[in-house]
Amino acid sequence: MATTYRGINQLSGRDKVIVGLMVVVPTLVVVWLVWLPAIGSVLLSFTNWDGIGPISGIKTVGLQNYRDITTIYPPFWPAIQHNLIWLAVMFFVATPLGMFLAVLIDRGVKGTKFYQTSIYLPVVLSLALVGFIWQLIYSRDQGLINTLTGSTVDWYGDPSVNLWAALVAATWRHSGYIMLLYLAGLKGVDPSLREAAKVDGATERQTFFRVVLPVMRPINVIVLVVTFIESLRAFDLVWVINKGRNGLELISTLVTQNVVGEASRIGFGSALATIMLLISSVLVFFYLRIVMKED
């Protein structure tokens, strides 16, 4: 006979303690590791602290760091431009490529397991290791591309091409991640929807774009958020190449250069991190709004 759940009053004293710990401990960890550093960065962005001396000696400079960033800090606007290009390539190239690969694998082509593993393999590698792997391909003197074509292009050193070279490597990794997300979504689509569309005379293309893709709306939203955040937090790859200089400036590398670099400008770097936080929060806000609306 099924018993009726009467809320937390039904739990024993020991269970209440365990439930309380399961709520409190993760909350404290998130507050300590996420919210306190984020709030601290925002507060430090209004100071000129260089990381040396007591906290009591910190001087408030108001919005001066933000004015300096937007007016007299040369790498800032190129970094914004590069982040937008990074986002566009991930959204319009890597994401459709990952979706296309997921559709092919979902159709059960021969060697599905091999292709699935091969395409997903770069995802488990760090972007730093991806950078070293592509260094073997892009190397000016002994790289695969220049050896095959006889070219002398310095793919990682030439500021006119190094961003695009890095984007090819990032696309190689990101498309595998997107493929896995869409493959999971495709497996969850009700087969009767495809059969109904086929009975109505829809082609494979019409079935996918008008029936299957709209059904995978939660996956589409997750892919959009993941792509946006991955584009903003892109760091490892360009840092391995040239520490985010000479045509590879990104907001994340500028934060690192100012906070832990030789300059050690904590306040200035915190202002850059705050700008990055605000940009990231925009899409997260829309994502949470969509999720809460669905709930």
Automatic annotation (TrEMBL):
Membrane-spanning ranges: 21-44, 84-105, 117-137, 163-186, 207-229, 266-288
Superkingdom of the source species: Bacteria
Pfam families: BPD_transp_1 (PF00528)
Entry keywords, A to Z: Cell membrane, Membrane, Sugar transport, Transmembrane, Transmembrane helix, Transport
Residue ranges of domain ABC transmembrane type-1 in the record: 80-287
UniProt record similarity statement: Belongs to the binding-protein-dependent transport system permease family.
Gene Ontology, cellular component aspect: plasma membrane
Protein's name in the database: Carbohydrate ABC transporter membrane protein 1 (CUT1 family)
Family annotation (PROSITE patterns): ABC_TM1
Compartments reported by the entry: Cell membrane
Gene3D superfamilies xrefs: MetI-like (1.10.3720.10)
Main location: membrane
Biological source species: Terracoccus luteus
Keyword flag Nucleotidyltransferase: no
Lineage: Bacteria, Bacillati, Actinomycetota, Actinomycetes, Micrococcales
Mode of membrane association: Multi-pass membrane protein
Single GO biological process annotation from the record: transmembrane transport
